[in-house]
Amino acid sequence: MATLELGIDQDVASPARRTRRLGLLFWLAIGWMIFVFALAAFADLLPLPSPFDMDMLERRAPMSAAHWLGTDGLGRDVLSRLIHGARISLIVGLCAPVIGLTIGGALGILAGYFRGRFETLVVGSMDTLLAFPPLILALAVTAYLGQSLVNLTAILGVLGIPAFMRVARATTLTLARREFVIAAQALGASHMRILLRELLPNVFLPLFAFFLLGVAVTIVVEGALSFLGLGVPPPISSWGIMIGEGRESLEIAPRLAFIPAATMFLTVLSFNLVGDTLRALTDPRQGAL
Amino acid sequence: MKAAIRSRAPAPFFNVALFGLALIASPLIADPASAQKKGGSITMGLELDIPGFDPLKVGVFDTAAGTAAAAIFDTLTFLDDKGVTQPKLALSWSSSEDFKNWTFKLRPGVKFHDGTPFNAEAVKANFDRQKDPANKCRCAFYIAGITGVQAPDELTVVYNLKDPSVNFPALVTIPSSNWVMQSPTAWKAKGDEYSRNPVGTGPYIIKSWAAGDRMVLERNPDYWNKERQYLDRIVLKPLPDAQSRFASLQSGEADIIWDDEYDADNIQKAEKDPKLKVHTYVGSGAQVYAFNTKVAPFDDVRVRQALVMALDRKKMSQAITNGLARPASNPFGDGSWVKCKDDGALPFDVEKAKALIKDYGKPVEFKTIVTATPRGRTVGQVLQQFWKQVGANMEIEQVDQATIVPRAFMRQFQLTPWRIVDLADPDAQMYANFRTGSPVALANYSNPDLDALLERARVTADPAKRTEDYCAVSRLVNKEAIWFWTFQNTYYALSSAKLKGLPKMYSGVIDVSGVWLE
Predict the structure, then answer these.
(1) Considering chain B, what is the average pLDDT of its residues?
(2) Which residues sit opposite B278 in a β-bridge?
(3) Cα A224 to Cα A249: distance, rounded to the nearest angstrom
(4) Cβ contact (<8 Å) for A248 and B374?
(5) Is A74 within 8 Å of B318 when comparing Cβ atoms?
(6) Which of B27, B72, B336, B450 is the one with CA 20 to 30 A from B467?
(7) Cα B370 from Cα B382, distance rounded (Å)
(8) Secondary structure (3-state) at B156
(9) Nearest-by-CA chain A residue for B317
């Protein structure tokens, strides 16, 4: 249609000048993330003891040259389990939000662009999913399909879809009425072209900022599920599993629970900081485009 | 000839399939020499919440329910601290010459809490209700070896057994759903409500019971044995978390708590604390594992032997229980009267195990069931580690405790944990666990020699000959490695040092009905 509704977004005309300074904290967070990623990625190349080998007579050994962070309740090297655990926590923490990002993002853009019945259906089904108790879903899936990395990632991914859908839809709703979209429509661009070339690049940035926050939440949720014994099956370690196992000897060797907890805290904090900074930079309501 | 028997002589009994379910305990033996003080109240921390007491509803009592049952109900007999059967609701007993009919003379003048007289009819009604196929009681399985109960007069009860049982009076000492005497008028009058409002003849009566919070038991003013009632009140609280249970004992909120060797840190702490006392009892039986010998790779004896030889039980005990758990080399244990000079246990030998696996030729990969609990995961990982060292690859399959039993009965496993519980006689469980065709013969293994030994041992009266047969069974099972035993059954209770008179924890039941406070 060629009806131009130019009078709608008057405030667009005043894009606020933003400072591009990101601050020391941001770079520290990026540094920690790179550090953790590097350790997790190159865990096999590092001169670490096996995370599974037990020295049953050397339980809860203190820190030493052989075991930099000591040994856990079954005599396994804590540092090695921490680094190998980072893999699980990061794999789940990154892959699950990717599922949410892809499916939820696509649904959100489509719903925000096409509106009508499709939007009602998508929003309705997402509300249904939100209303379902997440822990029950996790319990049901692990009980039925068994515990594995894939199942765990899939559950957490599906649970993340509604949130991503909402962010994508809200952003699309505001963008779909903007001049550049209307201009594209007026030039006779196809829906596909408008979605991919006009909307997606603009929706992606806020969605990516939300993704980073999602990573942080997912790492915590994975930890909680592992703590409850619903995570990856033993002997694989993840931070949540380590905290759960450490709880057993909290009074005798509190570090067994606190070291993985602190690592998880720092990592989640980093993702939150970076995510928050990016979100502030790309918030569409600021009209900074 | 009728012989009054009060020995721990072994004898065949009924088939019992057990996974930490059935119980034995001995009530109250107080040393008359020490000065027992009357009055006061105690609070006990239990591992689990009690579901109820109606056998038709709950089937069998766990150890938590056993503690309450020992206070609310009485059994016909009890085991004293020397393991000798003593009279309780029954005054005396005798058997027919073939040990297939047992006659009990009951204590006169005993009344249930609701005033119903306790008599032979009541004993018969308890039995018939559980045995009646229409009631579909899960408890009926454990009395399958008894064909019927007669009540020839007011105070005489006769049990008719399928197979001879020299030791029958010792076996009815358990405060389990099968052997506690419940009031027939009460269960008829209360119907569905009965399970949570049980009526027995015991020293304590339920005053109030809030599910998940506490059960308050008050002294029964009309008890037949007032001398052994010391406390005015017993409060039972479910405290499932081991740390908080121990904390409540330390703070004085609880006077006694249930515990087990997996909570070794706290047990060792209590040992050092002069204000606390550690009660422990080594029972018969063991914590065991069964191979399913019908599925690969366990259809090959070399694989089974290799896995058993790979286990260093001492190290394992160190890793999971700070060394408290006692390694087991046979299914009988230190608490049993069966003592073997040679039980045929396979040695711990990593090299031999590796050689056997190599000899087998194919990769050894399998799944082991563990309970989905921190304890289950710990034990699973330790086993996994031992077997990895000899080249066997084990995967841990975590399942809910309640699903282990049906899966075992349907043989849906490769390797499953099980338990041989503490009973006064090995026959019930040995026959059920290893006789060809038994539903609990989990290994799916059949051997005519083994069957013959089991058949003979259950009908022999001479303990020495029976011991020989059972040791031969142990040698055969160890050699074929169809089951293996990890640790013996050891039971723990931690209490304040002021609490006295706790009897031996037969089958893990902590019976506080006869304790007193100093």
Answers:
(1) 86
(2) B494
(3) 18
(4) yes
(5) no
(6) B27
(7) 12
(8) strand
(9) A56
